[in-house]
Amino acid sequence: MADSAELTTKGLRLEGLNKMAEGDRNYLISLFRTIPGFPAKNILFRDFVPVLADARAYALLINALAQALPVSLDDFDYIGGLESRGFLIGAPLALKLGKGFIPFRKAGKLPPEVYHQEYTLEYGKAAIEIEKNTIHKGDRVLIVDDLIATGGTAAAAEDLLKQAGAHVAGYSFVMELDGLPGRRALGDHPISVLMGMPA
Ligand SMILES: O=P(O)(O)OC[C@H]1O[C@H](OP(=O)(O)OP(=O)(O)O)[C@H](O)[C@@H]1O
Ligand SMILES: Nc1ncnc2[nH]cnc12
């Protein structure tokens, strides 16, 4: 496996991050990493964990997501975070926006009763669940995650909400892997991404 490399603005497609002052943006971007060959051969693993360890960068990231919301605050009731990286940004964003947070967990972690949905990842298969008593018919949920690749995880989140008679209000991602059909899996929902990059 090759060494990890710092992300630079070169090669990035800036969307939500365009709104940030250049100095802050370059600082934030310098704390993302790319690890080639992890967790499988031919995968460029895009990693934002170093951002979390840096108080300034973490705050910049959550502020950027709040500035780039794909819908207005009145258009959703909850933020839904996708385990596990989606928790690390979804929960602080929910607190900042004054919304409740719903964890979409990997299968087998939540007590019954749950809604259950299987899906396919860029490098494997998985299933996610939500607790039946945390979500109700008609609820509108803004789904938050660090990254959209194939869109399988984010689409599974919508399938889970449908089982409850609830709705996706929109999707908010930090990173989008360009060249993969992620957005096509999400229909017409409003989507915001902070930046796109090669898959
Ligand atoms: O668009 P997709 O092809 O579905 O891929 C994106 C998903 O993959 C990663 O999560 P992962 O399942 O690796 O779990 P983790 O957050 O627990 O690391 C990432 O955090 C997204 O949730
Ligand atoms: N290339 C990638 N890097 C980080 N997380 C991912 N999840 C799915 N694909 C990924």
TrEMBL record:
Give the top-level enzyme category. Answer: transferase
Question: What Pfam family does this protein match (any one)?
Answer: Pribosyltran
Name the source's superkingdom.
Answer: Bacteria
- Record domain Phosphoribosyltransferase: where: 76-169
Its EC number(s):
2.4.2.7
The record's catalysed reaction(s) read: AMP + diphosphate = 5-phospho-alpha-D-ribose 1-diphosphate + adenine
Sorted alphabetically, the Gene Ontology BP terms of this entry are: adenine salvage; AMP salvage; purine ribonucleoside salvage
* A GO cellular component annotation in the UniProt record: cytoplasm
Select a single GO molecular function from the record's annotations and give it: AMP binding
Q: Which SUPFAM superfamilies does this one have?
A: PRTase-like
Key words, A-Z:
Cytoplasm, Glycosyltransferase, Purine salvage, Transferase
In which pathway is this protein known to take part?
Answer: Purine metabolism; AMP biosynthesis via salvage pathway; AMP from adenine: step 1/1
**Which NCBIfam families does this UniProt record tie to the protein?**
PRK02304.1-3 (NF002634), PRK02304.1-5 (NF002636)
Please give the function described in this protein's UniProt entry. Catalyzes a salvage reaction resulting in the formation of AMP, that is energically less costly than de novo synthesis.
Q: Which HAMAP family match?
A: Aden_phosphoribosyltr
Q: Subunit structure, briefly?
A: Homodimer.
Give the family this protein belongs to, as stated in its UniProt record. Answer: Belongs to the purine/pyrimidine phosphoribosyltransferase family.
- This protein is called what? Adenine phosphoribosyltransferase
Species whose genome carries this gene: Aeriscardovia aeriphila
- The UniProt gene name for this protein comes to apt
